[in-house]
UniProtKB/TrEMBL annotation, chains A, B:
One of its GO terms (biological process) is polyphosphate metabolic process. This is Polyphosphate kinase 2 (PPK2). GO terms for molecular function: polyphosphate kinase activity. It comes from Allorhodopirellula solitaria. It holds the Pfam family PPK2. The keyword Repeat does not apply. Coiled coil: none annotated. The keyword Transmembrane does not apply. Belongs to the polyphosphate kinase 2 (PPK2) family. Class I subfamily. It comes from the Bacteria. Keywords: Kinase, Transferase. Residues 44-266 form the Polyphosphate kinase-2-related domain.
């Protein structure tokens, strides 16, 4: 039996579909956590993702060689939202010589002795490079706010500080893409339960998992503020329906590919004389044959 | 037509085959740059590599979760030796959250203001992590020696400094694997010529390429000294016949897999009560259904 030949040149605009409207209050309750988009099912989406990842690899190579622009991907989600899976299957497939993943954890004492953007700034991508943030400076207006880690007067100032910081990056030539993986409370519970059945995942268990679930409403509110306050034309948030892993992977791959296409990296002019070098090599080849 | 089913459980010991004998003078001229090893051809080797990479990914995950041991892969070769391809196809396929690639270039002025191991030490893997060095501290006894970048009295001392440094890492719990990709002058010339035909590779061209070819003998001598002086039981060098890319990828994948197997990472005991958590989740699921 022949495998089906899928249409991989979809006319569907994933960016437009999932872009959170800039500067506008959104209600996460009205954003779906599950969709099949333009796909005929899981296998179709996986074939689409494989092609998109290959395109991303080629575009990343050109960006690296061009050596001018950078890409910063910010990844946020509640626990079990699928960040690690997305990195393993899509984002982490870029060439590691030009792409680095930063998992931001609880700040160290040295990091806490600086402003909250200090460790973030150090991780931003140089010209030609890509940085992927697994969690980010947004935790400083999410968990820090929900769990009262700092006073309200402190976290309230951070939205503008974040915007000023991201503008600096954009003006230097860094493209910013911010991804929120949106799952339902029911899906999170299912994923937590699956971890219990897999001993290799038990290290991920901790008593805080359940506490976070109880603060779901507070997190939703904090995220909604982020999507309103830190979301300009050049610093977009995409809200990805992530209950279906294959839709999550496909839609993010499509958005990253489109972002690279918009960057349109160009191979630089070469300052050596290719034909001169060719003659040199041909002569050497001929000598070896003598 | 059915695709052939290859034997992927080969009895061939790639480590033993390619290990440079510790503390012994070797002559690179006697080491083959081309072999097919136990493979029936390219497709067989590629199937083997795919399986080995999947095994490496699983073992890397266990090492990450265990959080005790580290792996350091040092990669050295002459130009066009295939380091970038090997990283793209094998080494760089590890999960980027636990694995980082460090391309060491010409030292910056800040790096030159320190001892030669300063920037290297900063890049060594933490517990649970993997570092891949694309070029390394060995350049400080290779290019630095061949091109007289430092006095002989300086580079002569470095062999012992390197050994002491690597011993420190090993004693902390870092496994070290050093890979030399061994190609012939003729194969290098072919690869240089191919670059001329591919505009996307022209950025790699530089006038130094040819100069390096003219110092081939000096480099060989410098490498032979490295393999004799910096090569103990716990800091092994593997000399990989790398004219055939598919053999290079397969043999290095086999060696990295075996290294992880020797590390034998263990999932840690969990300090939460899995059954208690299960009850909590089951109760919540039941409540949602009410």
């Amino acid at each position: 039996m022949q495998p089906p030949t899928w249409d991989l040149d979809l006319k569907f605009d994933f960016m437009d579909e999932h872009r959170a409207h800039p500067h506008k209050k959104i209600s996460l309750k009205n954003i779906p956590t599950e969709t099949e988009g333009p796909f005929e099912g899981k296998e179709h989406a996986r074939a689409f993702t494989a092609r998109a990842v290959a395109d991303i690899q080629a575009l990343q190579y050109r960006t690296f060689v061009e050596g001018k622009q950078s890409l910063l991907v910010v990844l946020q989600a509640l626990d079990a939202g699928g960040k690690d899976g997305l990195i393993r299957k899509v984002l982490g497939r870029m060439n590691p010589q030009g792409c680095r993943t930063f998992p931001f954890k609880v700040p160290t004492s040295e990091e806490l002795a600086h402003d909250f953007l200090w460790r973030i700034h150090a991780a931003t991508p140089a010209a030609g490079k890509v940085s992927i943030f697994n969690r980010s400076h947004y935790e400083d207006v999410l968990i820090a706010r929900v769990n009262d880690l700092v006073a309200k007067s402190v976290w309230k100032d951070r939205y503008k500080q974040i915007n000023d910081f991201e503008d600096l990056l954009v003006q230097r030539g860094t493209k910013i893409v911010k991804i929120y993986l949106h799952i339902s409370p029911g899906e999170q519970l299912e994923r937590f339960k699956k971890r219990l059945d897999n001993p290799a995942k038990h290290w991920k268990l901790n008593a805080g998992d359940y506490a976070t679930r109880e603060r779901w409403g507070d997190y939703r509110e904090a995220y909604e503020d982020v999507f309103e306050k830190c979301n300009s034309k050049h610093t977009p948030w995409y809200l990805i329906p992530a209950d279906k892993k294959w839709y999550r992977d496909a839609s993010v791959a499509a958005i990253i590919r489109k972002t690279f296409e918009e960057m349109d990296p160009q191979l630089p002019a070469v300052d050596v004389d290719v034909e001169e070098i060719r003659k040199l090599y041909e002569r050497e080849s001929a000598e070896q044959k003598d």
